[in-house]
């Protein structure tokens, strides 16, 4: 029998193709390269592994997220800031960041496992694991930092702004942002601290903001202003019919009202968390002919900690500014801040810059305090805030108190964006404008009216007639202040004071600084 010849041996059969188009990288280096790219642009590793649908979905979601972040950084800044002052939104943001970080880490690990070649030696497997762990840490670290900032911000908003606070001068049923042409905020600098009994508000500024275009005028009152008036229809009007009086001249000045008013009549205004601020809101509002909506009190004793948290501030110094000293006792300063441009000040020196008045006037100090506030705003750039936000927020809670409700923060953010792009002007009631010992409050109201009614505080502004709406506070664009005596006087023939740009007082005056240096450093006690 003959057998059939054996079939010639053919080439070995090819391995079956991977299922579902899956493929692995040819080497560990390629797998790690794709994994690194996937950590930066999620979805790319899945595409490289042949998982086109999954990769496309993950990459698409990442691109949408990136587009949303770009929009928030540009056209959506207002929405981002509104979310940053909303405690509920902040919780959602922190939770969202945590979920996003977890999904991002899973994408990194899953992409590597899909691409890493099989049969690697132990050393290469360890190397791959180390790289993946490093990438996961790189993803988690900024997410943890962002979540921490979000929680710190939430605590800051909850501590500084509250909807449960008690105020004798805030109407909870009225939103000043909705029914008024202007919002008026009283800014107080409380100079308390070691060696001082109670808090004296040596800085009293009213920021009157146009709700239409954000134009802001700052009205600065001197600390030694006397006979602060109160509205006739308030309990304080009956107690102080001739203006604030605490029994002596030094204790009856404007800077003593915050401390002495509530000490004399602790419950006269009813339930409130800050009776001193309510006294000043009513009195300063009556003095200027404005209805004060809210107040913000900055404790200058904590001011130095805030400056240090920001890494210092930069100011122009045009004359020798005393550090320490007590003018009433003749105690010389410890030292002086020398004249010069762009002087970098730490917290303690910045506090001396804002406080010092030995051999100078209160009005010099008022100018420097506005410059210090302006310098703090400049120092609070985004990178500084990100690097030191926890310290800044912790300090801010100790430095700032206010009766601004949390419920109006959205409106306040919208107004702040208008203010950012608008002009800020200043009217300082110094001795060239008023006599603080014998103030003419009708004249003060006329000046305020003129400053608010036209862009330049013009000579042509015409105050309302004496019989036009008794008690209408000037510049409020809305409801009258019942019983107020705030109608501006028309009796004077002098032109109104023209508001000045706030930057003028903070600019470097080369001639003045040179003259001060030529005169030499004043004597110190050291």
Question: What is the element layout, followed by pairings?
Answer:
Blueprint: H1 28-40, H2 44-48, H3 52-73, H4 77-84, H5 87-115, H6 122-160, H7 176-179, E1 182-190, E2 201-210, E3 216-221, H8 235-239, H9 254-264, H10 275-288, E4 294-299, H11 300-309, E5 313-317, E6 321-323, E7 335-337, E8 340-345, H12 347-355, H13 362-379, H14 382-399, E9 400-402, H15 409-420, E10 424-428, H16 441-453, E11 500-501, H17 510-519
Parallel strand pairs: 1-4, 3-10
Antiparallel strand pairs: 1-2, 2-3, 4-9, 5-8, 6-7, 10-11
Helix pairs in contact: 1-5, 1-6, 4-15, 5-6, 6-14, 9-10, 11-12, 11-14, 12-13
Detailed description of the structure:
- There is one protein chain.
- This protein has helices at 28-40, 44-48, 52-73, 77-84, 87-115, 122-160, 176-179, 235-239, 254-264, 275-288, 300-309, 347-355, 362-379, 382-399, 409-420, 441-453, 510-519, and strands spanning 182-190, 201-210, 216-221, 294-299, 313-317, 321-323, 335-337, 340-345, 400-402, 424-428, 500-501.
- By secondary structure, the chain is of the alpha+beta class.
- The strands form three sheets. The chain has a seven-stranded mixed β-sheet. A two-stranded antiparallel sheet has the order 5-8. A two-stranded antiparallel sheet has the order 6-7.
- Helix 9 crosses helix 10 (275-288).
- The radius of gyration is 33 Å and the shape is elongated.
Low-pLDDT segments = 456-473, 475-495
The whole-number mean of residue pLDDT values reads 84
Helix-and-strand structural type:
alpha+beta
Tally the beta strands.
11
Number of helices: 17
**Spatial ordering of strands, largest sheet:** 9-4-1-2-3-10-11
Terminal-residue CA separation: 129 Å
Query: What letter string, H or E per element, gives the SSE order?
Result: HHHHHHHEEEHHHEHEEEEHHHEHEHEH
Largest sheet: 7 strands, mixed
């Amino acid at each position: 029998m003959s057998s059939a010849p054996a079939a010639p041996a053919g080439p070995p059969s090819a391995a079956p193709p991977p299922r579902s188009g899956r493929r692995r990288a040819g080497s560990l280096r390629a797998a790690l390269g794709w994994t690194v790219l996937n950590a930066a642009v999620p979805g790319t590793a899945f595409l490289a592994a042949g998982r086109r649908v999954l990769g496309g979905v993950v990459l698409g979601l990442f691109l949408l997220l990136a587009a949303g972040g770009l929009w928030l950084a540009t056209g959506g800044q207002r929405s981002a800031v509104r979310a940053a002052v909303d405690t509920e939104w902040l919780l959602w943001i922190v939770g969202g960041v945590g979920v996003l970080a977890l999904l991002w880490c899973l994408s990194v690990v899953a992409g590597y496992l899909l691409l890493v070649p099989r049969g690697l030696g132990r050393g290469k497997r360890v190397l791959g694991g180390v790289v993946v762990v490093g990438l996961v840490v790189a993803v988690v670290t900024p997410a943890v930092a962002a979540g921490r900032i979000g929680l710190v911000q939430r605590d800051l908003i909850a501590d500084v702004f509250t909807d449960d606070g008690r105020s004798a001068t805030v109407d909870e049923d009225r939103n000043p942002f909705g029914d008024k042409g202007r919002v008026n905020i009283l800014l107080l600098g409380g100079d308390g601290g070691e060696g001082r009994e109670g808090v004296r508000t040596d800085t009293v500024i009213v920021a009157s903001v146009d709700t239409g275009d954000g134009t802001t005028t700052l009205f600065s009152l001197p600390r030694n202003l006397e006979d602060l008036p109160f509205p006739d229809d308030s309990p304080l009007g009956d107690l102080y019919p001739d203006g604030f009086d605490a029994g002596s001249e030094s204790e009856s000045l404007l800077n003593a009202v915050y401390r002495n008013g509530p000490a004399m009549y602790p419950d006269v205004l009813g339930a409130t968390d800050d009776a001193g601020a309510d006294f000043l809101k009513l009195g300063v509002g009556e003095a200027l002919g404005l209805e004060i909506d809210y107040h913000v009190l900055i404790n200058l004793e904590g001011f130095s900690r805030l400056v240090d948290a920001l890494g210092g501030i930069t100011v122009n110094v045009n004359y020798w500014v005393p550090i320490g000293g007590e003018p009433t006792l003749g105690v010389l300063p410890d030292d002086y801040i020398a004249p010069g441009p762009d002087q970098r000040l730490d917290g303690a020196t910045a506090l001396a810059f804002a406080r010092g008045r030995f051999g100078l006037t209160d009005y010099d100090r008022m100018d420097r305090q506005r410059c210090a506030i302006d310098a703090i705003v400049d120092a609070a750039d985004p990178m500084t805030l990100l690097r030191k936000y926890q310290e800044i927020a912790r300090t801010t809670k100790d430095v700032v108190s206010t009766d601004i409700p949390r419920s109006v923060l959205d409106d306040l953010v919208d107004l702040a964006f208008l203010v950012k792009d608008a002009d800020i002007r200043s009217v300082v009631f110094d001795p060239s404008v008023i006599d603080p010992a014998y103030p003419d409050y009708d004249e003060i109201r006329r000046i305020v009216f003129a400053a608010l009614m036209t862009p330049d505080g013009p000579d042509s502004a015409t105050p309302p007639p004496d019989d036009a709406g008794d008690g209408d506070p000037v510049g409020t664009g809305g409801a009258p202040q019942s019983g107020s005596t705030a109608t501006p006087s028309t009796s004077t023939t002098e032109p109104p004071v023209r508001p000045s740009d706030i930057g003028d007082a903070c600019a470097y005056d080369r001639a003045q600084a040179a003259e001060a240096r030529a005169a030499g450093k004043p004597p110190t006690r050291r």
